[in-house]
Design brief:
The chain has 421 residues and is mostly helical. It has helices spanning 2-7, 19-27, 50-68, 73-96, 112-137, 149-181, 190-195, 209-226, 231-258, 278-296, 308-316, 327-338, 347-363, 367-377, 394-402, 410-420; strands spanning 38-41, 44-47, 200-201, 204-205.
């Protein structure tokens, strides 16, 4: 109810202290067994912690004071800014700074569940800030509207914090891939895997340990986040993860092949080399294509145009199979062209165009030129370089992510209480 009044421009209406949290849980149909309350802002539902709702309640109390005592409106703007900055800085210290591990919350680790709750809280505050600004502007004289520029700066601070949290999801997967799975690349022989008929079943291609690990851990991350994030945020997070995987898989394989004469990549005792037979090359590309197809099949994610297989095909100098042309559709197009009404066309123009067409046709009759043109069209383009980088806490991130699927939900409530402290 309090959020509805704020978003509808009726923030100055009186409300009793503590009513916001109760009304929010009642309006959203929260039961006594629900640990994380939900709030809806502009049609988007957010799963937040109680400290975030307490922040909104305190902001509402200050706005009500400004509505009843307009002489205090300028002071209220400063108080609201202090509250918002305190929540932002404290949540940064507790989660991204891992302060909750050493605080009263006594969390064992900061995992994907905690990160998802933080991004939900930040997203809700970002959505509410324009309404808070409008409510305060209504209580200020026109010459004091410049005081509200501080709220615009706070909104940018929240957006930057939220961006860092979203990138942290990528660094969790990055820590697993680079420090936990890369060592399994060594010893993988795709030439031998191509000859083993047991590795190809009716259900699809059985991937190597490295690629299967990438798929499994990404699925676990999706299982956790799909229950906590709204669809828009889920698509954003996994677009970042897919972009990282698309760039990192070929990079790690190429690095492992280049290091086969020296120290093995990922700490493995075995070495890796690219397949030399066409069957082995095809096997490698098929396994990469298989996991990318499975990743795009995850529910609620935006399909990503993976280029990893194309990059590896160019590295292997292997021509990937192209889709055959549909002969039936070609015949239908020819029939449609033959039915075009030509009654309004000048016969002289038709004859001229026909002669020109014959000249063009004859210009491509040279077999050498036709072959050169075909070779040009068959070049494989590599994918775009990924602009974003993963931070360097790979070992810690990998350890945190390993506990993602099995953490108790009690950690979420502990993190909420830690944010209040």
């Amino acid at each position: 109810m309090a959020l509805t009044r704020l978003c509808s421009g009726r923030a100055g209406v009186s409300t009793s202290r503590g009513r916001l949290a109760r009304s929010t849980s009642q309006d959203e149909g929260a039961s006594s067994t629900t640990k994380s309350p939900e709030a809806e802002v502009e049609g988007i539902r957010y799963k937040v912690v109680w400290s975030c709702l307490l922040l909104v309640e305190m902001v509402m109390t200050n706005i009500e004071a400004a509505a009843r005592f307009q002489s205090l409106a300028s002071n209220v703007v400063g108080k609201v800014s202090e509250l918002l900055r305190l929540f932002n800085s404290r949540s940064t210290q507790l989660v991204l700074g891992a302060g909750a591990i050493h605080s009263a919350a006594r969390l064992k680790s900061i995992n994907a569940k905690h990160l998802s709750l933080v991004t939900q809280c930040l997203g809700m505050i970002i959505a509410l800030l324009p309404h808070v600004r409008a409510a305060l502007m209504a209580q200020l004289p026109h010459k004091q509207h410049t005081l509200l520029t501080d709220l615009d700066k706070i909104k940018k601070e929240y957006a930057d914090h939220n961006e860092n949290v979203l990138n942290k999801f990528v660094s969790i997967i990055g820590g697993i891939v680079e420090h936990g799975l890369a060592k399994h690349i060594g010893g993988t022989n795709f030439d031998a895997r191509a000859e083993d008929s047991k590795l190809t079943t009716e259900n699809g291609v059985t991937c190597c340990v490295f690629l299967e690990g990438v798929l499994t851990n990404t699925r676990k991350m999706h299982q956790v986040l799909s229950a906590l994030l709204p669809p828009e945020h889920l698509q954003d997070v996994f677009s970042r993860i897919f972009a990282f995987i698309d760039q990192k898989i070929p990079a790690l394989l190429i690095s492992a092949a280049e290091n086969r004469g020296g120290a093995p990549a990922g700490g493995s005792s075995a070495t890796f080399s690219f397949p030399t037979t066409d069957a082995g090359k095809k096997r490698l590309l098929d396994e990469v294509a298989s996991i990318t197809a499975d990743l795009n099949a995850l529910e609620g994610v935006f399909p990503w145009e993976f280029s990893a297989a194309s990059v590896l095909a160019k590295t292997l100098e292997y021509q990937m199979a192209t889709e055959p042309v549909n002969q039936e559709s070609t015949k239908e197009d020819d029939i449609a062209d033959s039915n075009v009404d030509t009654s309004h066309v000048n016969p002289a123009e038709v004859e001229t165009k026909t002669d020109t067409g014959d000249d063009v046709k004859s210009s491509t009759d040279n077999p050498a030129e036709a072959e050169a043109e075909a070779d040009t069209n068959d070049d494989v383009k590599s994918g775009d370089e990924i602009a974003s980088e993963v931070d360097g806490d790979g070992d810690a991130s990998g350890q945190q992510a390993e506990s993602v699927p099995g953490d108790d939900q009690a950690d979420n409530e502990s993190s909420a209480n830690g944010s209040c402290s």
